[in-house]
Amino acid sequence: MSTCDNIAMENFHGQFYSSLQRDREYAIRVRHAHKQYGTNKNLCVVLDGLSMTVPKGIIYGLLGASGCGKTTLLGCILARRRLNSGEIWALGGSCVKGARVGYMPQELALYQEFTIRETLHYFGGLVGMRAKKIEDRLNFLSNLLMLPSVDKKVADLSGGQQRRVSLASALVHEPELLILDEPTVGVDPVLRQIIWDHLVDITQTKGTTVIMTSHYIDEMRQAHLIGLMRGGRFLAEESPRDLLVKFSTDSLEEVFLRLSANQILMKENESNDMPGKRDSLTQRSQNLVEKSHFLPSIHWDHLRTLLWINGLWMLRNLPVVLFMLLLPLVQMSLFCSAIGHNPKGLTVAIVNYETQNLSNCDTTLACNSSTLSCGYLYYLKGKDLNFVYYESDYEATNSVLKGKTYASIVIKSNYTTALQARIAEWRDAEPWDITASEIDVLRDTTSKDIATFLKIYMYESFRDFIGGYLESCDYSPRVVAVPFQWKKPVYGLNYPNFTDFVNPGMILTTIFFLSVALTAGAMLIQRNQGSIERAMVSGVTPIELLITHIITQFVLMMVQLTIVLVWSFVIFELTLNGSVLLVTLLSILTGFCGMCFGFAISCGVDSERMATYTALGSLFPLVMLSGIVWPIEGMHYLLQLCSIFLPLTKATESLRSILQRGWGITSPVVYMGFISITVWSLIFLLFSIVLLKVKKG
Ligand SMILES: Nc1ncnc2c1ncn2[C@@H]1O[C@H](COP(=O)(O)OP(=O)(O)OP(=O)(O)O)[C@@H](O)[C@H]1O
């Protein structure tokens, strides 16, 4: 049972039972409808106690100036907008949707990239029509509405042709009730008459009820009944013939003008004589705001058609889809090859006062060596540095000042003898020997990482050099080593690398934000094209929309995920010590969370531009505060508190522990990541559903 039917069932009881019997004779009955937009300051009352009666099997023309509320009234009849107060009964229930109604909105609300045939199969499929029947109707309607080749894309049609496809989409399933918002705009007079003849024919032969709006007042002569709307009410609701006779004219336009003038006069009298009458009228109207339920109402026809249309959309937008699939590949390739590797080929200025003759520089480490400086430089060069030799420390300093080199290394003239003395007489070493055995280093530390790496290279090469020299003198190298015994790390590598640290966060951020972009983009495109609105009138529920989008995006996300994981662990061989299954599951949950966030964004904002700003605006705080590029322990304690509540923080910690520590799901750090990302997905989903509900008004 659909949401609509549920509401109708609720309202069967009590005071409405008898009136419902009466309402069954009418296609539509509206009583004391009040609808306003905005709040106190910007209050705009569109329907002001309006009542409307549409018998079955007639054409009802809704006329009125632009902005008088015709579209709003149709939206309320279709339960796409809520009344503030008043009652609406449509085809015997409190709202009407699905196969019983055909709706042509004012805006086009068609997928531009689909052909006429695909468009009609989409709308027919949504209301459960079989393909054969749709084809028959397609032939009939394309002849009737003089459509071009049915295999032409909607985007390639003229404005008038596109509106005719929109009309055909409303007519395809031969509904009981047709609601057409300006169906004849942009249609030439001959075709306009053909459309009118068809509408008259289906009211007579099939008992169809048609409610239509038009700006061409005089074409409404052909309607059985017209409602002239102004100031939120009807000036008249009669047959055009009666109105023309009553006002002794042959122009409906003149009738409208004279009724409008009467209304202005009456309003002036009302406000002089009876202030407050309007308020009491509004208050007397019973508030029967439709209760919208989010009970799962799922139809296979809807799911099948929505999935087909989503797949077709991807096929028609192949460059966009390919871009979304290639993006993670490019991103992971760039990340793995550009981030976290030790800098190589750094240029360093060298001044070796011990020997300026490089060809004579003996690098052999022997106890009686006279050029130990050459030995040290040999080890340092092994760190892949690029040496530039200078004759004086003045020149070397200048090269650092001018940014030609990252550091200058100056070795004093009696380096070897001083170093040998320092080692042999370590306790009684003379101060000048200590000074002469020191190497002077001048660095440019504007790049923290390069400065740190240079320092590490110099320490490590000195450790290896001095160790080799001491061994050649039969000393233990440990005598001069820093007195720590670095055991093999419990988790991680002897030389931890930055790529491994950032990779878990990188994988999750990539999956999360690609899902956000895909989902928010697809939903907004459809919403702004009006196709979601139209699908909902065809009976599609928000839950069905969510399910089909989740399935479609899920397929894309799985491809993206496979690319990201294969690139990280197979191609770039980053550390993977834990379970591949857990890594995959956590990544899927993160992608799902991204989808839910994308839904929330698309429900919360109205334009793709705002969606992009929101997604970008959330990307940076998430990357900065989730411990992805820098440990959370290094952040301000207030930010540390914030970071706990972000969706990617616990998930990143969890993935890092799986990848590097090899921990399983029983570890609290690991399962907290799973719990946190699941809770966030639910929060985003609930938020989307609440927004959908609230925004409907
Ligand atoms: N979502 C909204 N929020 C605020 N105001 C709205 C909203 N939708 C419509 N309105 C206002 O309500 C009034 C009636 O709009 P509506 O679209 O129903 O008019 P209309 O009679 O269909 O106009 P037209 O013939 O030009 O299509 C207009 O003044 C419009 O600005």
Name the assembly state: single chain
Strand order of the largest sheet: 5-6-7-3-8-9
In total, how many domains does the architecture comprise?
Answer: 3
Structural class: alpha/beta
The global form is: elongated
Distance between the termini: 23 Å
Subcellular location: Membrane
Keywords: ATP-binding, Membrane, Nucleotide-binding, Transmembrane, Transmembrane helix
Membrane topology: Multi-pass membrane protein
GO molecular function: ABC-type transporter activity; ATP binding; ATP hydrolysis activity
Summarize the structure.
This protein has 697 residues and is an alpha/beta fold.
Describe this structure in words.
The chain has helices spanning 3-12, 17-23, 70-77, 116-126, 131-144, 159-171, 189-205, 240-246, 252-273, 277-284, 300-316, 318-338, 372-381, 393-401, 415-424, 431-436, 448-472, 498-528, 531-537, 542-571, 580-604, 608-625, 637-644, 647-661, 668-695; strands at residues 26-37, 44-55, 59-64, 85-90, 101-104, 177-181, 209-213, 225-230, 233-238, 347-352, 386-389, 407-411, 440-443. It is α/β, with parallel strands linked by helices. It folds into 3 domains: 20-100 and 175-248, Rossmann fold (3-Layer(aba) Sandwich), CATH 3.40.50.300; 303-336 and 497-695, no CATH class; 347-473, 3-Layer(aba) Sandwich (abc type-2 transporter like fold). The protein has a 6-stranded mixed β-sheet with strand order 5-6-7-3-8-9, sandwiched between helices. The two termini are 23 Å apart. The relative contact order is 0.08. The chain binds adenosine-5'-triphosphate. Residues 37-38, 44, 46, 64, 66-72, 106 line the site of adenosine-5'-triphosphate. It is a multi-pass membrane protein.
